[in-house]
């Protein structure tokens, strides 16, 4: 039977762990009481006789029980709070002598502290969710009203060709002052959201009521948000600029707005017509829908918080009664049951209301459909997946052993061997990276790191660690199998024109599977991967989220694979595989320069992401992080120049620049990404909160990260191991970089999880589209 402490740890909300009852600490206090009771019992050892035993039994079951019924063992005082934010406070007074009164006093002081902490946190979160619920009600009312106006306008039918183009939008007019038109775009401070400006008369459905903007409101008339007059209030519609389409639309709107303003010093009623169409309302509806889902999830977490804490109080009081032979449970439990976190029903009512609204407006009154969004079913783990993991792992090991034996016999990895064949082997780095990601997922689950929340992944579509291992083992078994067949055909004397196409066909098969539109082989995960790669390639134009820059960091560790993929593409596209002219791509200036550019791209993409995050958030730390990737690009450029002209001057420059870049990267790894090297930490050179119990693991990881960061020294001095081809050495070093990235991934998400837990952030804060504007602003 699993102990309650294990169940409690496994079911609590990880980001709220510090706000839950500290069950382990209370157990330690009870163990302390139990230990002291045993000491007192062993030290006294009273000489008992039969009459004395009878008298003590009568006292125990008669007089003591009578006294307990009379006044009880304890009395819990309730102190009224000075303000509603803090809530009532509880303090326990002992009315009877315990075997060790001091230990009992410490226990109840700790128990009171836990009860007060739970009440205060519950009250704070309840207030936060209630305010969020009120905001969503207002947002929903505005959305319904605007959709009603659109339907009314659409129901009138177009009377002309011009009206036909605008029959699916609500339009309005703006009355602008001359002072407003003189304001420049430099006064606009909000560039994160897209919107439009219109006016609606909510009672009659009239369209075209003028809205006059003040001079101060010009700051809102950027391409990010517009003033809206609806329901008698001035509102702004905010649609985040998350993709290039919205960005370009916003910029084009600004340019057109300036063109109109330049042509007319003052706008009349028909001077500047703006529209709210179905597309904008669809974006607003999507944002509100996501906010409802996150609110419902947060309310579910709060209900779990209440139930688990209530159960923890019951369990710990039972243990106390068992150790002390006192009847404390019924007395203190009445106080816990009447306390705020257990007696308040506002969360339950709000959850029912959210569910009702979601079913009505987002699920067409279909409750089953709504529950798929509000309570998504967890993906069940299949035993067949585990079976196939073992099967393909066995196939991979058997084929790999056979391949090593055959490669040794044929001398494949000696100098002057098949160069293109070795370039193809480095493709396996991708699956090594995938295997390490699966290992990271296992460790994240064991340490209760909510990586799905950090990556903002859907629980119904996210890959489990078994799925990752299955993809990895299947792919590696296929790769090693094709390599074994290819090597067998080469050793039997088949022509290169027939044999050398096999690795290219394998690569083509992987690409086809990746872009396959059929709903097979983890389609949602494949397309999510492709969308992330698209966001990275167009990183300045897309809003950067955690998953995007996390994946871009992975690409920075896969530079050797990207360069070799470019060489493989050149090798097969130019037809060099038919003549075995591998040096053709290396001789051609265009392809050689392209290979150097490929090595710069991951760092460039990551730098652009840092620039975009600074543009969106305004934190200078993103600019400092950008400098890290710029230094990496400078170091890579120095290496390229040294490879072209190997002189002592270039060598010194490479060593200096690479050393500076390495120190920069090590500082950012340890201090920023991992959150370590805190001088005032209770754990020397680490941080206060650690997810792993054994501290030496962190020190070993820091030393290993330092050593692997210095792997660039080999690429400069070209040290080889005996007669092994230098490309084998490069493959080994590239694999070590992937291993370094694997351990970096764990500590990076550990630090991110601790940041979320420090702010008690367990659900996403979805931005709302409609915002009220004060007339005095």
UniProtKB/TrEMBL annotation:
Similarity annotation: Belongs to the SYG1 (TC 2.A.94) family.
Signal sequence residues: none
Domain EXS: 586-777
Record's protein name: Phosphate transporter
Keyword ATP-binding attached: no
Taxonomic lineage: Eukaryota, Viridiplantae, Streptophyta, Embryophyta, Tracheophyta
Domain SPX: 2-334
Localization of this protein: Endomembrane system
Species assigned in the record: Salvia splendens
Annotated keywords: Membrane, Phosphate transport, Transmembrane, Transmembrane helix, Transport
Transmembrane region(s): 385-405, 425-444, 468-489, 501-522, 648-667, 696-713
GO BP: cellular response to phosphate starvation; phosphate ion transport
Region of interest (Disordered), residue spans: 154-173
Topology relative to the membrane: Multi-pass membrane protein
PROSITE patterns attached to this UniProt entry: EXS, SPX
Predominant location: membrane
GO cellular component entries: endomembrane system; membrane
Keyword presence, Ribosomal protein: no
């Amino acid at each position: 039977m699993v102990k309650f402490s294990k169940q409690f740890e496994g079911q609590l909300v990880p980001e709220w762990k510090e706000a839950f009852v500290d069950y382990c600490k209370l157990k330690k206090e009870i163990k302390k009481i139990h230990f002291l009771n045993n000491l007192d019992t062993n030290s006294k050892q009273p000489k008992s006789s039969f009459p004395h035993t009878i008298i003590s039994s009568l006292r125990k079951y008669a007089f003591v029980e009578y006294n307990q019924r009379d006044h009880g063992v304890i009395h819990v005082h309730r102190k009224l709070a000075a303000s509603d934010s803090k809530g009532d406070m509880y303090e326990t007074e002992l009315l009877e002598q315990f075997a060790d009164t001091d230990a009992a006093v410490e226990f109840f002081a700790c128990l009171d502290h836990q009860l007060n902490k739970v009440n205060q946190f519950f009250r704070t979160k309840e207030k936060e969710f209630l305010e969020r619920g009120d905001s969503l009600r207002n947002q929903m009312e505005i959305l319904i009203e605007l959709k009603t106006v659109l339907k009314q306008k659409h129901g009138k039918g177009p009377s002309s060709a011009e009206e036909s183009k605008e029959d699916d939008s609500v339009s309005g007019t703006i009355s602008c002052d001359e002072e407003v038109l003189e304001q420049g775009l430099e006064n606009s401070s909000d560039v994160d959201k897209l919107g439009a400006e219109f006016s609606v008369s909510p009672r009659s459905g009239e369209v075209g009521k003028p809205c006059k903007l003040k001079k101060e409101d010009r700051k809102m008339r950027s391409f990010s948000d517009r003033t809206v007059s609806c329901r008698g209030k001035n509102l702004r519609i905010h649609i985040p600029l998350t993709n290039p389409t919205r960005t370009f639309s916003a910029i084009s709107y600004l340019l057109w707005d300036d063109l109109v303003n330049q042509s007319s010093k003052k706008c009349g009623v028909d001077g500047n017509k703006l529209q709210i169409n179905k597309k904008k309302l669809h974006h607003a509806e999507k944002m509100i829908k996501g906010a409802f889902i996150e609110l419902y999830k947060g309310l579910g977490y709060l209900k779990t918080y209440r139930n688990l804490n209530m159960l923890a109080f019951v369990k710990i009081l039972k243990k106390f009664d068992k150790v002390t032979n006192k009847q404390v449970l019924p007395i203190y439990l009445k106080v816990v049951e009447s306390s705020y976190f257990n007696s308040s029903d506002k969360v339950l009512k709000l959850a029912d209301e959210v569910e009702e609204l979601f079913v009505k407006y987002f699920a067409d009154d279909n409750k089953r459909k709504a529950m798929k969004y509000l309570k998504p079913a967890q993906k069940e783990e299949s035993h067949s997946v585990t079976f196939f993991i073992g099967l393909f792992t066995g196939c991979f090991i058997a084929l790999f052993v056979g391949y090593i034996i055959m490669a040794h016999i044929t001398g494949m990895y000696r100098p002057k061997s098949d160069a293109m064949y070795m370039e193809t082997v480095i493709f396996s780095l991708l699956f090594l990276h995938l295997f390490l990601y699966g290992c990271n997922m296992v460790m994240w689950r064991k340490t209760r790191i909510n990586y799905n929340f950090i990556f903002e992944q859907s629980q119904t579509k996210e890959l489990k660690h078994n799925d990752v291992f299955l993809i990895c083992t299947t792919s590696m078994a296929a790769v090693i199998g094709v390599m074994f067949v290819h090597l067998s055909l080469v050793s039997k004397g088949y022509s290169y024109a027939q044999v050398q196409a096999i690795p290219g066909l394998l690569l083509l098969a992987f690409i086809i599977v990746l872009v396959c539109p059929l709903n097979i082989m983890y389609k949602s995960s494949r397309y999510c991967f492709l969308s992330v790669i698209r966001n990275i390639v167009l990183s300045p134009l897309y809003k950067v989220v955690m998953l995007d820059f996390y994946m871009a960091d992975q690409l920075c560790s896969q530079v050797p694979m990207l360069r070799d993929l470019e060489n493989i593409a050149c090798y097969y596209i130019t037809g060099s595989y038919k003549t075995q002219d591998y040096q053709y791509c290396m001789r051609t200036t265009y392809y050689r320069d392209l290979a150097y550019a490929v090595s710069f791209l991951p760092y460039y993409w990551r730098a652009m992401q840092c620039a975009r995050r600074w543009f969106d958030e305004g934190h200078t730390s993103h600019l400092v992080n950008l400098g890290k990737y710029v230094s990496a690009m400078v170091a890579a450029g120095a290496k390229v120049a040294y490879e072209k002209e190997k002189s002592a001057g270039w060598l010194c420059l490479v060593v200096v620049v690479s050393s500076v870049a390495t120190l920069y990267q090590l500082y950012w790894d340890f201090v920023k990404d991992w959150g370590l090297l805190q001088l005032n930490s209770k754990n020397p050179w680490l941080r206060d909160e650690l997810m792993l119990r054994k501290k030496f693991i962190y020190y070993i990881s820091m030393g290993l990260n330092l050593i692997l960061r210095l792997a660039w020294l080999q690429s400069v001095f070209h040290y080889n191991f005996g007669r092994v081809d230098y490309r084998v050495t490069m493959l080994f070093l590239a694999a070590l970089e992937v291993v370094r990235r694997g351990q970096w991934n764990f500590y990076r998400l550990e630090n991110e999880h601790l940041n979320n837990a420090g702010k008690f952030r367990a659900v996403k804060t979805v931005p709302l589209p409609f915002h009220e504007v004060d007339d005095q602003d």
